[in-house]
Structures are given as C-alpha cells and as structure tokens.
Amino acid sequence: MALGRRNAAGRRAGGTDSDSLLQDGPRQAPGTDPSRSFLEARDLRIHFPTDDGLVKAVDGLSFTLERGKTLGIVGESGSGKSVTSLGILGLHRKAHAKVSGEIWLGGDELISASDEEVRRLRGKRMAMIFQDPLSALHPYYTIGHQIIEAYRVHNKASKKAARAHAIAMLAKVGIPRPDSRVDDYPHQFSGGMRQRAMIAMALSCDPDLLIADEPTTALDVTVQAQILELIQTLQAEFDSAVIMITHDLGVVAEMADDILVMYAGRAVEYGTIGDIFHRPEHPYTWGLLKSMPRLDRDREERLVPIHGTPPSLINRPSGCAFHPRCAFGERNGDLSRTVVPELAEAAPGHWVACHLDPDERRAIRVEQLRLGS
Amino acid sequence: MVVFAIFFLLPRIVGQTPEGMAQRYVGRDSSPEAIEATVKRLHLDDSIPTQYGRFVKAIFFGDDYSLGPQKAHCPAPCLGFSFNNNQPVWNEITRRLPVTASLALGAAVIWLISGVTTGVISALRRGSVFDRSSMSVALAGVSLPIYFTGLVALTVLSYKWGWFPGGGTYVSIVDNPAKWAYALVLPWVTLSFLYAAQYARFTRAGMLETMGEDYVRTARAKGLPERTVVTKHALRAAITPIVTIFGLDLGLLLGGAVLTESTFSLPGLGKLVIDGIRNNDLPVVLGVTTFAALFIVIANLLVDIVYAMLDPKVRT
C-alpha cells in the first residue's frame, strides 16, 4: 500500500537509481562508493566518556539510504538508535561525545565538517521529528513562530512570506483552520496536532533527509496511524529519505524499505523488509518477531519475550553482546563468548552478525518462527 | 487586604500602651495631666477598632489633629504625624522615596545584568574555571551580609584609597546627576553584589535545566545558530522564574533597603524606619511599613501580570 502510493507520486530525484530498486531486490552493500548512495554511514562510532567508563553507545555502524526510501532502525531502549540519529544531525556536543567514522549526505561528509557547516545543513537538508512533541516544542512560542524561525534561518524570506509558508505547511500536514491555529501555542494543540505541527516544522525547508525518532510513541494508537500515513504521503511528495527509529516492529513493517536491527550499539542484522520479516537470520531478530503480536497468526500462540535485560554499554558482554540472552549461544563452543561476530552477507544485501553456521541457523529459524520461506 | 492587615497588627505587636505613646510625644518630664491630655488629643484611649477606623479613614480622606492650641489638617494620604518633629509622615516618606528608589533601581539594573550574564556563562561552561570561580564568588556574595561587605567597601575604597565618597554624601539627581551617581556607586555595588550572587545561581541552575530540554534540542535540530538557541530558547525559558523573583525583590527594596541605607547613611525609607524604631516614633514606623507593604502587594500584582505575559500557559 505504502509503496504503491510512493511510486505513484511524482519524483524529482535526479540521478539516483532509487526507482529501479525493488523492495526485496538486491541492494547496495554498506561500505561501497559513497557517491552512489544518498546517505551513507560508514563505521560510525559514538562514544561518551563518563566517570564510570566509556559508554560505547554506537560502535561501528554502517548503512546506506536512498532518496524516497525509508530505513527502519529497530532495537530495544539503549541500543543506540536515538544516539545514531542525533549523531547524523551532529547534535552531540564535542565536549561530551567522541564521534568517529563517516557520514555522507549527498556528497558532503558530516563528521569532519565544522560545526557551522553542519548547522547550515541541519534543518535545511536534514530534519528531525522527535518522540514527544509536547516537550520538543518550545512552550513559550506560538507554533507559527517556531515554524517561521526554522524557515527563516535557512531561507531569505520576509516575515510575511515566512508566515504564509508556515500556514501552507500547517495546511499540508492537515491542521484545520491553519491561518488561525498558526498563532496558537503548543499547549493549545492536541497530541496528534502537535506532532503534525512538528512535522510541518521539520519539512518547512524541504529537507532531503527526515529522521523520525519514535514519532508515534507518545500518541494514541488511532493518531499513530494517521501520523505514519502523513509521513509517508509527505515523503512521497518531497522525495525525501526517511530514517524511522522505533522499537515497534509494526511501525517499520508499515513504513520501511530496509531495516537495521541494532543491539548494544551495533548492527546485528541489516536487510530489506522482506529479509527481516520473512528470512530473519539473527537470534535477536527472532526474539523481536516472536515478542510481537501479529494478526496473521493463530491467536492461541503465545508471545515470547526476550529474556534478560539489555546489556550495559560500559561493560559490554565479551564476544557477541547478545550471547548472555541467546538460546543458541552455546552451539559453537566459546566462539560467541569470546569473538565479536562481524557483519557478514548471508544473502545478497542481507547482512547478519552471528557465529551460527548458516545452515544450522536456517534450520533453527524454521523451527523458531515456523516460517516456510 | 494584606496592607490593611499589616497596619492593623503592627501597633499590637509593638505593644505600646496609650500612656507610653503619649509620653513619647509630650516628653520625658511630663505631668500626668499633660499625658492625659495628649492621650485624649491623639485619641489614644479609644478602642482599637475605633483607632483603626480613624487611621484608615485618614489615609483616604485626611484628618484633623489638634496640636496644642492650633489645629493641623493632615491632607488625604494621611499616615499621622511623627512624634519627633510633628511633620506629616506622608511628607517624610515622599521626601525619602527618591533616595530609596535611586538605590534600588540602580542596583537592580546592575545585579540583573551582571547576575544573569554570569549565570548564563557559568551554565554554558559548566565546570570551567570561570564557572567555578564565579560560583565561589557568588557563594560568598549570598553568604556575606551587606553590613560586612558595605563596611569593607567603605573602609577600603572610600576611607583608605579615597576612590569613592563616604557615607552621607547623597545628593538628589535633580541637583547634580554626576554627584548623585558618584555617591551611589558603592551602595549600588554592595547591594547588587548580594542580589547578583543570588541571580547568578538561579540563572545558572535554570539554564542548566533548560539547556537539557527537548525544545532546546529541537532548536538546534532546526539549524539555529548557537547564540539564538541559548538566548531565544534556553534563556527565554529560564528567565521566567527569575522575572518573578526580580519583581518581588524590587518591591521589597523599594519599601526601604534598611541595611544598605544604614551602612551608607543614605536618607532613604529604610533609614527613616530605623530611626523611627530607635526613637520609638510609632507613626513613622507604621507609615513606612504600610507604604512598604503596599509596594510588595503592587509588586506581587505586577509579577502576576508580567508572568501571564511571559508564560502563555497561564493566560488561557
């Protein structure tokens, strides 16, 4: 459904090959020529030195994203999803965080760029929607003021023109009577309206990359669907690349083209939506899928939680960070406990970081998920 | 309401007998008859509600007092006559208010600018040398009383080095603005040091809080320059409670900066009330206190109005 609408909408992508990419087709491997992908992160590391030790919030993350496509980043709390998104925007203060690696956005490398250069890109070429729109909007300024401010910092526009633009953006995100609501304060908006206003603000400068950090977590379920649909519609209209950060697999199933599963700051599995949902390779992904209620399954089937808690990012478990919680970690002796598994291509475009023997893994998967494919 | 309650309760707290008060008025060596006559003349023997009624009525409509043989009319905002010099208390207050206002407003400008600036810089450079040293100075500022810092400033800067005039050299701004400012430099600095220290601490704490707020992150994510993020987003939110405190502090000071005025011998309201207490001059004490209470009430009202302007959530 989502893909159909996206394809139907006019694209202005020039030179990218995103149109030819099929949803489940072969995709580009991370770590190839940066000129090919619109957004590319290579070996991204974000470490926070603290009094208790070095917090490795993101530790060697690579991914690519094309215009018009959506990447879902999935993981538990503390897996480094939000840290990654803030890292792309350059919102980690240099005094507090050590950021290394490369992030390429349409030919510009962001990590080596100066603060001022990144600031100019922020809001204009890459924008972000935050989790809780009530706390993410300034309580003392009107919605209009905040959109106008975002627009005028990157565009030379008169106050009047910027205001007209803000009203047009509010209309676009489906806020009724935008010409009067533009002067309302955030607390006068409902939760869903606030998130719509937040989206209007993020899209006011027509960014190429939109990062949505759990955009629906703070909203009612009925409103959630509306907001997700709105993001999809606007993504098609603006032909932007979207990174959807969530712990809700239902959201990524609806939205994403590719999925990156994160665990303890590293990618454990990375592939297309079909790879992750139909051919998952990593035991952690199996756990996520088994703990998610599904409409297409027997209702009698029990949801299985993943036992244990997410690991400390200061003292990561040795070897595979997931091994203390993994039911199959013992199958290859000490390997999982001692050696960090590298992300390896299990199938073209489908990457997984697991020590299990591929054939054995597939056998367990069939048994675990009772999937035919 | 509060104002009325205060000047109703105050004489009760002071606990003067009618005779005692009359004796203050007549003089030490007075006959019981003279005291008796004065008590009658000043209506000190009336019941408390009656006296209170007279007092309130005098404030709005004025009052007539028989001072010895002649009658004296005390026009509308009448707070009675000083026991000491028979002058209407109201005249004394209006004469001294400019002194206190000069002191309070001047100091307010200094402490607001220096305190908030220091607090903002401290918060932005948390843990830096500037932060640590300014917060140590601020701690000293909050802890040291004015009569200490004031006296040290007077001793060193005025008497020893002669940079500034000593106490009791106040001139009205109308007569000589330069001299007025020169005489007030030390009182301003001393008084604002105390408040600047408090405001620096408030501002620092507030800024540390708001800089971590989601909306500040949003402001950065929009690509606003850091200066705009700090001033228009973080400081804008942190300043609201400070404005509230500022209004109350200023209202309090306008009713008399007792310690500063005493230390620097400034003829302001604070000095007036201190002298009044020293001389057992009840009408003066009562008058100044009432006046000061009025300022505090007005300040509270203004703060509420300003707060509603600053915080849209209060408005609706």
Written description of the protein model:
The complex is a heterodimer of chains A (373) and B (316). Chain A has 373 residues and is α/β, with parallel strands linked by helices. Chain A folds into two domains: 1-7 and 27-125 and 208-373, Rossmann fold; 134-206, no CATH class. Chain A has helices at residues 2-8, 81-88, 115-121, 133-136, 143-154, 159-172, 178-181, 191-202, 221-238, 249-255, 273-278, 283-290, 335-338, 358-369; strands at 39-50, 53-65, 70-74, 98-105, 108-109, 126-129, 209-213, 241-246, 258-263, 266-272, 344-347, 350-352. In chain A, the strands form two sheets. An eight-stranded mixed sheet of chain A has the order 6-7-8-3-9-10-12-11, sandwiched between helices. The longest helix of chain A has 18 residues, at 221-238. Chain A is globular, with a radius of gyration of 21 Å. In chain B, a hairpin with a 2-residue loop joins strand 1 (63-67) and strand 2 (70-74). Chain B has 14 helices and two strands. Chain B has a two-stranded antiparallel sheet with strand order 1-2. Chain B has two domains: 2-74, no CATH class; 93-315, MetI-like fold. Chain B is mainly alpha-helical and 316 residues long. Chain B has helices at 2-14, 18-26, 32-41, 48-61, 89-124, 129-143, 146-160, 177-211, 214-221, 226-254, 258-263, 269-278, 282-310, 312-315, and strands at 63-67, 70-74. The model of chain B has no long low-confidence stretch (mean pLDDT 82).
